[in-house]
Amino acid sequence: MGKGGEYEIHHENVIFKPEILNGQNKENSGKSFGLNGKLVFAISAASLGSAFQHGYSTGVMNNPQSVLEDWMRGVLKERNGQTPEDTTITLLWSLVISIYCVGGMIGGLITGIIAEKLGRKMGLLFSNIFIVLAAICTATAKPTSSIELIIISRFLTGLNAGLNAGITPMYLAEISPTNLRGAVGSVYQLVITISILVSQILGIRSVFGNEDSWPILLTLIMIPCIFQLATFPFCPESPKHLLISKGQEVEAQRALIWLRCTHEVHEEMEQMKSEAEAMKLVPKVALTDLIVNGALRQPLIISLMVMLAQQLSGINAVINFSTDIFKTAHLSETNAMGATMGIGLVNVLMTLVSVVLIEKAGRKTLLTAGFAGMIVSTVLLTIALTFAKDSTVASIFCIVFVVLYIITFATGPGSIPWFLVSELFSQSARPTAASLAVFTNWFANFLVGLTFLPIKDAIGSNVFIIFIVLQILFLIFIWRKVPETKNKSIEEISALFRQKSYE
Predict the structure, then answer these.
(1) Burial status of residue 39 (CB atoms within 10 A of its CB: 0-12, 13-18, 19 or more)
(2) Are the beta carbons of 122 and 113 closer than 8 angstroms?
(3) What's the whole-number mean pLDDT along residues 196-208?
């Protein structure tokens, strides 16, 4: 019997009360906070720096692909005395693209360690070291005729992006009011789409995507790095990290007051204290606990599956190789680059729409609707690519269906997986779970980046049939397994999985 005659259910050393299971805890019944200047500043400093680096590195290699391939061909010819075969250049280019994902995987794996040892704030600031080193490599690659330096720089930017992809959504989720958590979490993907578009515009031949200026194009990644180093130190650490992980109650309250622009944070502090007390009853969550404990295993499987779904849906095949896809559809190189930038703009606009919709429609609704639309658009794209060789109309429809694909992806599958893992886990399990989820995302990204172009060269447009099958399987999983987390506190969501495990 709990205080005031309330019954408590004890399971696996965790106490959760009936009002939590019924979604009636203090956080939801208390005051709802809106955006204010300081919260917007913290969101901007965290996301514009880190997510911009992530997106820019993802899209920057697209438009100047042919220029860089010609440069690599010239370097190898100078070294070996003979012109390399096209297959050698194709494999080398695939390595340049995919090594970025290898760095992302490693960065993802150390997310939990960095986030706990250094904290969310210092972890993000620390990740900028890799961008500085990468910029040095790209700036010296052409003068030294070193393809290896390009590969190293891509690996370093991958390390940075892997850390950012794990820590930034975690920080955003922990500084956001419950009623804004989804919208704020979507900002990370929104900035990624904006930076991809910026990288594509800057990659035009008439700007920096030419034989003389491509080192500048790759080195511009330093700009968001400088922005974050100049702004983020003025922002507070995550209040939840300060209170629950570090036990610094006074500092946590100061951070919360700063973020909310008010001293009326008593109820939110009490909620965090309750979570901190609950965490004291639970041993520190290790990797084996996520697998053995049913209450943690279920959200872990969901987190990994939505990350796989995002990447194996084919999005990075479309983003990284969109120019090549449009060339296959017999568009000129100039028109193909223009079409690529067009889908980048659509991606930005629809992700912005998803930021608005996320708190109204809900996470699961947008995920299912997005994947259903992606299945339809990918089927139509496959058909159009089949006839594009002989039909100008089919070539035009290729662009239409790629745009439709981007629209449906951006409505939910693009943004939701990045912050969903932070919603499904409590403070003690979140860093480890985020590490596994981000690693899984980057591993899937790596597979697509390494295999898409060789498979496309072998079987043509039929390569998208593979993505269609995967999209169908992921849609079924999301429909059956992913819970709706809209307007639920982290404690409520965790209690939901504990209840299912108990049953």
Answers:
(1) buried
(2) no
(3) 89
